[in-house]
Each structure stands twice: as structure tokens, then as C-alpha cells.
Design brief:
Blueprint (H helix, E strand, L loop, with lengths): L1 E7 L3 E8 L2 E10 L2 E4 L2 E4 L1 H13 L10 E6 L3 E5 L9 E3 L6 H11 L1 H8 L10 H10 L1 H4 L4 E3 L1 H10 L3 E2 L1 H5 L14 H7 L8 E2 L5 E4 L2 H7 L6 E3 L4 H9 L6 E4 L4 E7 L9 E4 L6 E7 L3 H11 L5 H12 L2 H4 L4 E3 L15 E3 L7 H23 L9 E5 L6 H5 L8 E4 L3 H11 L1
Parallel strand pairs: 1-6, 10-11, 14-20, 20-21
Antiparallel strand pairs: 1-2, 2-3, 4-5, 5-8, 7-8, 7-9, 12-13, 14-15, 15-17, 16-17, 18-19
Helix pairs in contact: 2-4, 4-8, 10-16, 11-14
Amino acid sequence: MNVLGFDVGSSSVKAGILRKGKIVGQITRAAFATNYDIDRAEVSATAVLRAVAHAIAQLGPRAKKVDVIAMTAMAPSWLAMDHDGRPITPVVTHQDRRSVAEAKELLARFGKSRLLKLSGNLPFPGGISSTTWAWFMKHERRLMKKADLVGNVQTYLHRQFNNARAMDPSNASFTGLYETLTQRGWNDELCAAVGATEHQLPQLIEAEGVVGMVTRSAGERFGLTHGTPMLMGCMDTSAAMIYCEPRAGQLLDVCGSTDVLALCTNTPRPHERLLTRALGMGKWWLSVSTLAAAGSALSWAKDQLYADQPVKNFYALMQELAKDSARGSGGVTFDPYLAGDRTSIDQPRAAFHGLTLSTTRRQMLAAVIESLARASAARLKLLAINPVKIRRDVVLSGGTTTGLSDLLHRDWPGKWKFKLESEATLKGLAVLAEG
């Protein structure tokens, strides 16, 4: 079976052809921009669509010969569409913080314990998109009267490719409107709280389900064969976990600009400092802790502190300092919140402490490194509240070429084994298709 898989990330799309779980030929990529304005983080839906089309086009005629198509897409990535599936709002990403007031209103209305019980998560601004929906209903009410379908990028792409109105359970978990812990469906009380109607909500389909066929117009637009079946798909971390085979206690660490540490479990235990979501297929869940700025914090340090140094030299210095960054920092400390915090309603900001006139840039870099290592290790205690026994063999995706992975795992207590799985997300889509 030949599978066309594509992954819509936070800044680019990558696509490839897979056969028997292996990538055949090249992986293609196409970028799109995120627009930032004070507390807003938005992406143009049409820009995402163009990037998807460009990534597929680079695969050439092979894209027309596949047996099935599957995708993963970033979430949260909230947007509203009109009756014809055209976007009437931008895509609002997890970095958006405009909806703090709405988050506090939802928290006051339901309380922490009830929200965790109903949806599995607290209403983190941008990170749980019920807050975004509530913001648009309050500030863009006239526009939202045109909203016929509301979902994530996944929903939008299926509407464009096959006319379906759909979403999988992993994406639904981050809407704040879905009963994540039971996977029973949309919660009427939560939907009413943000003004969501039943008609606007996508149909829920598990990740491996066939959601529709490529329409004739989509085939012409994207260089695909009319009638090719499309699977529902899921979030990227879910696809990577599916590739590794879901097992209770399995850890997956996706090291990159953001570091995502996910624990697979068959017994969900929500916590106010964790993100809880369905895997997307079967009765499996992921308990997730993220460092919103991991690799991106080091990139920031490179640009701001070591702009005069080649990238290779900078990462060599980083690896040297990582061996004993507490001593190398000279008493300087750093709060690692350059991109805020995915599990906070009031967003913390990054800050250096203990600076003096004698502080050097080397000490400041050491402080950044030390903060990341400590924050990464602290997540293990949070994840350990889940009753499953955490396995010591960790599946790793990314972070090996720059030394980021070694840095983030430096302070993990005990012995661990890390297995690198390259392109686990795309390979996970092949597993979905081939069973």
C-alpha cells in the first residue's frame, strides 16, 4: 500500500510517500508564517492550504498513484468557516494569549476540579481553544453569525479535500469542549458556556477511520486522484506514539523549538499543570508536559548573546557548559518562559536574576542551559501522578544533532534508555493506513 502522508506543523508542512512503514524517496517541505501582534498569534488558513499544495506538488506524479492519504495537523489551531468551508477567521495557534479574561470567566463558572473532570484540562488561553471561541463570540459576534463550522486546521483541510465536517479525539481534547476522560463526545454544558451550537461542531471520527474521498475539484487543485480515500488522522505526537505502538507507561519526547514530553496511559489522570488528551484511536490517552521554549530558547540566546559566533561554535559551547552549568552560571539564574507556559492562565515571562556588572554572556548562557535541564527533569514528578508505571525506555524524536536532547535529559534521575525514531510522525500515518 502506498500512503501519502503530510504533517502540518507550527511553521511548515512536510509530505512524503510511505510504503510498509518506510518513507520512499524524498520528504518535501513548504513553509508558512505566523503573524504576531502583542498577545495574538495567527496563521492565514489560505497560507496553510498553499503550503500543503506546494509540499504535495513537490512529490510529483507519485502523489496521484497513492492508495490512501493521511495527515497530522497542529493543535490547537482554532478557526471558523462559512457554509462553503471558507475561513472567516485566522487560524489561532497555541501561542495566542488574547483570551485570558475568557479563560478566567470559564474557570470562575465551573471551578478547577469540575473543568478537569468534564474536559480533562483547564482553559489555558490559546492552549485550550474554548477560550478562543468565547473571545470571538464576545468580540466578533457579527462575524461569528456566519460561522457554519468551527474546528482546527485538521477540520479545515478535510473540508477542503473531501467536504467532510470532522475532527479526531486527539484534536477534540484541546478544544475544551470534549469529554476527554470518557471519550463520549461533545459536552453540552461546556459548549453552551462558549456559545457553540451542535451544528457548528465537527463529527468525531477516530484517527484510523476513513473520513471521505478526495473531491474532483480538490484533486485538480492538489494534484491528487479524485476518489482517493482520506483517513481522519490525528495530532503529530499521537501519530509518533502510534508508530512506536501505544503501551501504558511509554514516554515519547519530541525535542525541538518546543519540547513535548508525552506519557501514554490507559488510565487518564488530569492535573492542572498537565495537558490531557485522547491518543486519537482506542482507549488510550496522553499525559503531556511541554517546555514552550526549549530549542527556541537556545536560538534566542544565540541571536542575542552570541550573534558574532558561528552556529557550530555556539552549540559546541552549549554542550561544554551543559556538563556543569550550575557552576558556570556564576550565581545567575533564568526563568525559562520566553514563550510563556502552556499550562498557565496568567502567563509568566522569562527573566534573568542575579546579574551584576561582572556578569558575562557565558554565565548568562549557562543560566539558560541550567534552567532548561531543571525544568525538563521536574516534569517527571508531574507525570508520575498517573498510576501507570513509567517505562525507562524513551522514544526520542529530534534534538540529537545540536545536543539539545542530552541537555534536556541531563538531570533525569536514574538510568534511562533513549531510542531515536526519525520521522516518527509520518511513519505513524503509515501505521494508521496499513493497520
